[in-house]
């Protein structure tokens, strides 16, 4: 079974992001970039399927500018067999990414596509679902456990207030939630091997997709700063403030 | 309970204000001790001065009434240097916690002695700078205490000890004088550098009340590697290989047993499944991809030589932090076995022989004890931890470890090392000071103490007895 995994290059989630001075965007100058955490989980799951003998080949795909090849190399170091880079400039919207991934799906004919449920920069939570619609493949979103059984894929989903298990016919799409697995470290011998693995580069035109834009980023601003707390003198003052200033008791 | 006389209590209150003198049992127990548990705290009072003038007033009173003072910072020391066991008055510097006079040109900032290390680190970060002395207790430890113990920690190989970051300091001596030492100068060869004498003096010469601290450029894109290494000799080869080619920010090591305990008790992931006797943790700045390529080439070389069996590298800040926890959580993890700790150093080149000798001695005498090794090694400092078997009573364990200590320190002496690499001498190590300092040296230290503190009121009984 061939598995396609999508990975996205995003700001490292431990980095404190800052808005640009003019509020036009997030400041990405000299900021540490990393693989989107949900995509990392997707790669780990695909590699585990391969280690279990279920998957025969794992292909990592990323859409973006040249530097996102670093994240493809990370996926290759984690155990993916080969990479595909769809080179595209600027801010690519989920719909365009879904169309580009559809192009890759048509080329590669994977039985399973695993994506992160969302990226931590755009927070859109759309690409997997859109890809499902475009390819007419069934989808299991927010997966916390997946298991291939014959021609079926059982997906345990994290839904409000509990878990839901669904069974999908293959080929299918899965988007990962946080508890699906704990990704491994990239071992140094595997990083070296990854350098020799095949990495193909496509343009959107190769996949028959025109990059369009429907969304304009108007403004980025940091959250309002929290006011410093104060120390009250006694219980009476506390009650007074809760009543009259915070208005949380009456 | 405090048995302080009402008259002295009143005099102390006159110095610092009524509410700033504490004599309740909880406060005495809290302020009277550091992280060590070998002695019981028994101070007679705790004072919390709010200014340098108030510290001076307390010292004047102590001089007039011959009262012993114990200066106290974050009380995270591991040698009993801040213990008050004999009715001393604890002078807690918590309230001298202002950070002011930031000087962007000199990259210095003036800190009260009570500024918490993490507070200075956060301040530096806000200015786009970096305070590089860092260790597990940075959220509690204070600058005054760091200076008095010359605190080290995990970045010493690259940035040195606290000593290297003190541009100036103010000290109230045991004779009540306020000394303003070095005043932030970079170059100052006009006579003895008394500042350096005060750093690491563990409060025996006076009370550090303020310091001008140097700040640095922040490191960029820190990347962490953990390597599996078959033996200590190979650890040294790995260190030599890397130091010859890259500027390392840190080079730490820990044993397989340390890793097993941390993984089991902190729910952390093993870096890789290949077992190894020791693990080396390296941290370096990755300015460009060429830095990583360089590190990869060094790794390949080490594998070819048989010095390294496997390794991982952090791909994100989260992974770097998780890998650091494998090393930094060891102390907390093994605290459940109330370990007998030794903080020893030799020159870097002698570490492997030294370690082998210590291990042989302990294994021969006490085959039932578990030994956990970890440490900074890039600077020659290793921490030897002997874990208490659950069934062994505490008193017997301590007594047996006391014997081990003597053997260990004899080995330290033979290797011309130090019985206290970064924790200081305090109460716990003073019986062993002579293993690393000559009689002539100790005699001079005592004379210096008498010049600064003629009445012997400053942290008496610490480092040595007069």
UniProtKB/TrEMBL annotation, chain A:
Q: Which GO terms fall under biological process for this protein?
A: carboxylic acid catabolic process
Write out the GO MF terms.
electron transfer activity
Q: What InterPro entries is this protein classified in?
A: ET-Flavoprotein_bsu_CS, ETF_a/b_N, ETF_b, ETF_beta_N, Rossmann-like_a/b/a_fold
**Required co-factors:** AMP
Classification via SUPFAM superfamilies: Adenine nucleotide alpha hydrolases-like (SSF52402)
**Keywords of this entry:** Electron transport, Transport
Q: Which SMART domains match?
A: ETF
Q: How does it assemble?
A: Heterodimer of an alpha and a beta subunit.
Q: Which family does it belong to?
A: Belongs to the ETF beta-subunit/FixA family.
Q: What does this protein do?
A: The electron transfer flavoprotein serves as a specific electron acceptor for other dehydrogenases. It transfers the electrons to the main respiratory chain via ETF-ubiquinone oxidoreductase (ETF dehydrogenase).
The name on file for this protein is Electron transfer flavoprotein subunit beta
Please spell out the taxonomic lineage of the organism that makes this protein: Bacteria, Pseudomonadati, Pseudomonadota, Gammaproteobacteria, Cellvibrionales
């Amino acid at each position: 079974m061939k598995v396609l995994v999508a990975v996205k290059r995003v700001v490292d989630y431990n980095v404190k992001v800052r808005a640009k001075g003019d509020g036009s965007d997030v400041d990405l100058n000299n900021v540490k970039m990393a693989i989107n955490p949900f995509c990392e989980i997707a790669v780990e799951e695909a590699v585990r399927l391969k280690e279990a003998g279920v998957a025969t080949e794992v292909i990592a795909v990323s859409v973006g500018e040249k530097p996102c090849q670093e994240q493809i190399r990370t996926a290759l170091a984690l155990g993916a067999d080969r990479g595909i880079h769809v080179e595209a400039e600027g801010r690519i919207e989920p719909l365009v990414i879904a169309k580009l991934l559809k192009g890759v799906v048509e080329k590669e004919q994977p039985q399973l596509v695993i994506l992160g449920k969302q990226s931590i920069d755009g927070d859109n939570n759309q690409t997997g679902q859109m890809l499902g619609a475009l390819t007419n493949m069934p989808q299991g979103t927010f997966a916390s456990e997946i298991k291939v059984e014959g021609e079926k894929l059982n997906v345990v989903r994290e839904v409000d207030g509990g878990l839901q298990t669904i069974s999908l016919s293959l080929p299918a799409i899965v988007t990962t939630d946080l508890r699906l697995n704990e990704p491994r470290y990239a071992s140094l011998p595997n990083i070296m091997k990854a350098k020799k693995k095949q990495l193909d580069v496509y343009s959107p035109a190769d996949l028959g997709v025109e990059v369009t834009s429907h969304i304009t980023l108007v403004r980025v601003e940091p959250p309002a700063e929290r006011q410093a707390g104060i120390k009250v003198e006694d219980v009476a003052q506390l009650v007074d403030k809760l009543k009259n200033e915070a208005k949380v008791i009456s | 309970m405090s048995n302080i006389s009402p008259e002295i209590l009143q005099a102390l209150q006159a110095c610092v204000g009524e509410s700033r003198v504490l004599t309740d049992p909880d406060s005495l127990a809290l302020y009277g001790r550091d992280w060590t548990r070998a002695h019981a705290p028994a101070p007679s009072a705790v004072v919390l001065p709010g200014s340098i003038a108030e510290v001076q007033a307390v010292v004047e009173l102590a001089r007039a009434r011959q009262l012993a003072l114990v200066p106290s910072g974050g009380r995270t020391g591991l040698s009993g240097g801040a213990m008050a066991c004999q009715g001393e008055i604890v002078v807690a510097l918590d309230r001298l916690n202002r950070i002011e006079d930031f000087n962007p040109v000199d990259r210095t900032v003036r800190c009260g002695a009570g500024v918490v290390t993490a507070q200075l680190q956060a301040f530096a970060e806000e200015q786009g700078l970096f305070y590089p002395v860092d260790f597990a207790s940075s959220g509690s430890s204070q600058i005054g205490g760091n200076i008095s113990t010359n605190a080290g920690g995990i970045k010493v190989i690259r940035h040195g000890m606290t000593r290297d970051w003190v541009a100036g300091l103010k000290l109230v001596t045991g004779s009540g004088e306020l000394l303003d030492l070095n005043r932030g100068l970079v170059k100052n060869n006009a006579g003895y550098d008394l500042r350096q004498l005060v750093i690491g003096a563990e409060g025996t010469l006076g009370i550090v009340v303020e310091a001008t601290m140097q700040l640095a450029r922040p490191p960029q894109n820190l990347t962490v590697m953990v390597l599996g290494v078959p033996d200590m000799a190979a650890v040294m080869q790995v260190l030599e290989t890397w130091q010859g080619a890259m500027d390392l920010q840190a080079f730490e090591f820990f044993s397989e047993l340390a890793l097993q305990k941390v993984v089991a008790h902190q729910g952390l992931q093993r870096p890789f499944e290949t077992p190894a006797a020791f693990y080396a943790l390296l941290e370096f700045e990755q300015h460009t991809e060429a830095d990583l390529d360089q590190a990869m080439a060094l790794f390949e070389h080490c594998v070819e030589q048989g010095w390294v069996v496997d390794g991982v590298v952090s791909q994100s800040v989260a992974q770097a932090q998780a890998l650091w926890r494998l090393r930094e959580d060891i102390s907390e993890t093994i605290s459940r076995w109330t370990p007998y700790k030794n903080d020893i150093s030799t020159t870097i080149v002698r570490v492997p022989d030294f370690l082998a000798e210590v291990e042989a001695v302990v294994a021969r005498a006490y085959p039932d004890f578990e030994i956990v090794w970890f440490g900074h090694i890039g600077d020659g400092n290793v921490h030897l931890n002997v874990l208490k078997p659950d069934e062994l009573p505490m008193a017997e364990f301590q007594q047996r470890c006391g014997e081990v200590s003597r053997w260990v320190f004899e080995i330290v002496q033979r290797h011309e090392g130090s019985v206290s690499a970064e924790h200081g001498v305090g109460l716990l190590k003073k019986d062993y000071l002579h293993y690393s300092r000559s009689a002539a040296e100790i005699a001079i230290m005592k004379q210096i103490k008498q010049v600064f503190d003629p009445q012997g009121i400053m942290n008496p009984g610490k480092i040595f007895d007069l």
